[in-house]
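Suppose you are handed a protein chain with no further information: no name, no annotation, nothing but its sequence. What can you learn? This example shows the usual starting point.
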Amino acid sequence: MNSPYKPGTPCWIDLMVPDQQAAIDFYCDLFGWQGEVGPPEQGGYAVCTLKGKAVAGIMKAMNPDGTVPDPMPPTVWTTYLSTDDIDATVASVTDAGGRVVVPAMDVMDLGRMAVISDPAGAVFGLWQPGTFDGAAIVNEHGALIWSELTAPDLAAASAFYSAVLPVTTARSEMEGADGYVEFQVDGRAVGGMMDMSKMPPGVSPNWQPYFNVDSVDDIQAAAVRAGGQVLAPAFDMVAGRMAVLADPQGGAFSVIAPKPHEGSA
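A reasonable first move is to predict its three-dimensional structure. Written in structure tokens, the prediction is:
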């Protein structure tokens, strides 16, 4: 990525975990990242890199005052959507039926962030760039390639996201993708949305990252060897071959070996 992300586009992901170092080790080994616990003035936030460029963040679960949460929150990946006016975006959330989880705040000179829950309860972040635009490598092995919302009501979700960000939604035109909805920015697909009724029981509304990999089967096997879980074994689908995995602390993510010219971050 050599230019800022257009507003409404997924631009960054990070993971909040009880054991930060264990998560860094797992993902660095799995995807070939480099990463280490960050300095205290950044709350220890680790910016993981691929080929020397930022691809994802990993942070230790903690309260704003630095204490350990009780109970510990679930281990989840958070997807951040880019905005050029975070205050205006946050202000529109309540009117559209969402909830502000973490109000807009400055992150040094890097940018401004907020955390939002949509009306169905799916949590996502907002990012207004300063000196940091977001992921600097996408669509390569070990990097983000797609972001997907699982929602109980696709029409309601479409209305919410279109109300707070400059995105539109449209049914996917890919053959075999019946019912799948794309988020689009300026007519370009930047993410997707799936009906929750197609998911196993117990799955809550959520945003999930997809990582591009050269071999889904090899990554799946490596994740299991490292203590991860297979939530959906490797299978072929319209956009390529994919699997849904979880790291040893329960963070769910998908991996995909896309068919040529299919999928983008």
